[in-house]
């Protein structure tokens, strides 16, 4: 996840006239860019958030935006993204269209002084992600990737137990997978899933989930080395599936696994590090599970 508000600095005290409890605040007013399936799911989810309200939506045509607005009872709709960004009633923008345009639309939102939530992947290139983060920081605006799985209550609980309470000791290895059969819902080769020019393929569509899961249990640490193998579709040029291995450098060593014959006090630490094995793809269903291996408890 990429965010400009993810450091450990304490939050400033509430300004005069502002509520200290988020539930006492007026609803955050959302504008949605893109009126497709992903934005549909996001709009449905926001219905359950008392501190959020969708006030505007925009698509590449007024007709598409109007249909979306009618479905979700959204008061304003626009046939261009620029029009939505001029709407003074919009506090924050969710970008849910195809991700080849993440930098372009993210930059438009930030330059319009709107906070922004970009659907995963945050961008298609590292340089674009770095640019958007720095632009948001320079303007004092919120900018984050919409990696929804990180906010699941079960995932938050697992993270707390593993990283804060260390109930399984030090994590040394993570295995995680996310594979599904895209042909169940996407028409080959016409779907955007198989269209290289708009960012189709398993690396950008599917791999962000296991990457997020792996880095989550290593405390967000960046891997020092990444190796990947996979298969390309010779017809469309997109990657169909792959397996990646991430290597994390030592940060001071970890104790080896303990049993009745030794103890933490008299056991020297080994050169600690960590690895993660990721599987992702568009060709078949997998169990979609994440597991952690530990070395001490």
Structural description of this entry:
The protein has eight helices and eleven strands. It has 297 residues and is an alpha/beta fold. It folds into two domains: 22-146, Rossmann fold, CATH 3.40.50.720; 156-294, Dihydrodipicolinate Reductase, domain 2. Strands 3-2-1-4-5-6 form a six-stranded parallel beta sheet, sandwiched between helices. A five-stranded mixed beta sheet has the order 8-9-10-7-11, covered by helices on one side. Helix 4 (102-111) packs parallel to helix 5. The two termini are 29 Å apart. The relative contact order is 0.12. Residues 1-16 have low confidence and may be disordered.
